[in-house]
Every structure is written in C-alpha cells, then in structure tokens.
Amino acid sequence: MKQNNTVQGKKAMNKKLFLLVGEAIFFILLLMVVSIKTQASVMDGPNLGKYIYEEHEVLTQGQYSKVNDINDQLQTGKTPQRLYIVILDNDPEKPDGSDNMYKYLGIKSDDYYASNILQKWQDQDEKQSGDYGRASDDDFRDNMLVLYRNQGRIGFVGNSQNYITDYKLWKITFGKMHGIKSNNQIDSFMNISNSLVKPILYSVNVENASSSQWRDVEGEFIAGIIIAGVIFAILFLLLLFASNPAGADYSPDSYDNGFYDGSTFSNYQNNDRK
User: Fold this and answer.
1) Helix (H) or strand (E) holding 248
2) Widest Cα–Cα separation across the chain
3) Contact 214, 167 (CB under 8 A)
4) What is the DSSP string of 6-69?
5) In whole angstroms, what is the distance from residue 67 CA to residue 64 CA?
6) Model's pTM, two decimal places?
7) Mean pLDDT of the chain, nearest integer
8) In the predicted model, what is the mean pLDDT of residues 235-242?
9) Which residues are paired to 53 by β-bridges?
C-alpha cells in the first residue's frame, strides 16, 4: 500500500510539473505574440480587419463596424473605392512651413507620409495576389485618411486629388476639426470619414470631376477685392459730382460767401471815398 501511494504521489507530482511547464510555455508564446503585435509597423498593413491600422486600441466595436459600413457604401458605381483608416500618435514628418492649411487648421491634403503607407500596402497586395495587373488596377480604388492623435491633425491621400483638393477637403472638414483637437477625437474622425464617401464616389464616377484649389480661391478673392475697390471709387466720384454738378468753385455756399465778401469790400471802398 505504501509503495502504491508513493507511485501515485510521483505521478501527481509529474502531472503538476507538466502543467506548470505547459503554462510557462503558453505564457512565453503569449508574450511573443503581444511583443510582435506591439512592434508591428504601420507599413506592414492593417492590424484590425481589412481597412484599419491603429497604433493603440482606441476604436470601439461600433466604430470598427462604422468603418466597414463606410467601405460597403464605397463599393458602388463604375469604380468601387476603399477608404483605409490609420490612427497614429504622431506625424513623423515636420509640416511644410508653407503649408498654412496644415499648420493652422491641422488638415494635410495629399499627405506624403500617408501616400508611402498606402504604397507599401498596395505592394504587399501585389505580392500576395501574384496578379500584378489586377493589383495595379486596385491601386486606383484606394484612399487613406490618417489621424495624428497627439497633434490633433489629419492627413488624406487618394486617387481623387483632382476633385478632393485642399480647398474641397477644407469644406468637407469644416466644423469638424474642433472635435479632432478635443476629447471627442475619434467620433469626429469617424464623422469626417463618413463625409468623404460621397466626394470620393463623385470624383471617380463623374467624368472630369474637378474642384477649386486654395490658390485659385485666394486669387479670385484678391481679384474680387480689387474689382470691388474700383467700383466703390467710381461710385464715390459719381456721387460727388452728382451733389455738385457745376463744380466746387460754383457751389451755392461758395457763391453766397463770395457775394457777401464782394459786397462788403465795395461798401468799404465807397466809405473811404466819402
């Protein structure tokens, strides 16, 4: 009996040892997976579903579903589109000093960094598909919107730059950028993403779709000020001459004062002669 108890005790000890070793191996593997996920680069592709990369877990399940719904809406028309969403802490590139729209408003149109990310993702799609012709055609379906959370800025890149210009993007985001710079950041970002659906579809499904750029608007604004100034000057001169048709030298007030001065001077001379 004693020997049987000893044998059973050894088996129990071995079982516990195996369980501890198994748990240790599982824990190590889990750490490796988490480490790999943490170290994964945005250039490696989406890490949440098909359309999203988030540097940290910030999206709710409802917001994740919203991104999928946006892309479902974009799968219409002659040229279906995709909108990739990227959420990073910071923009690794310093803003161009001449880009006042990005500097003051926090909106970067035709984002060069986003363009590099998108190109990397497209290259990986080509390798995975093995069909380089099909993958190249897909490149014309891709758009990307990036949120730089710590800086309260966004960047956009896509194949619809002729229509979604810097000025058009400003109009799309008008009234929404305050949320990007506040605690309502992710909801505002989702709102902007949803607002891009119709412009993106219009840009690729309407022939020769185009929109003004800021430099065009600024030029038109300056020209408008000059024309308004000229018109105002002409109206002022017309009003001036209309109120004094005979000229300033013959205005009623000047004539009355001249008559009075002349009469006074004549009377003064007559008194001297007497």
Assistant:
1) none
2) 168
3) yes
4) HHHHHHHHHHHHHHHHHHHHHHHHHHHHHHHHHH--GGG--SBTTTEEESSS---HHHHHHHHH
5) 5
6) 0.65
7) 76
8) 68
9) 86
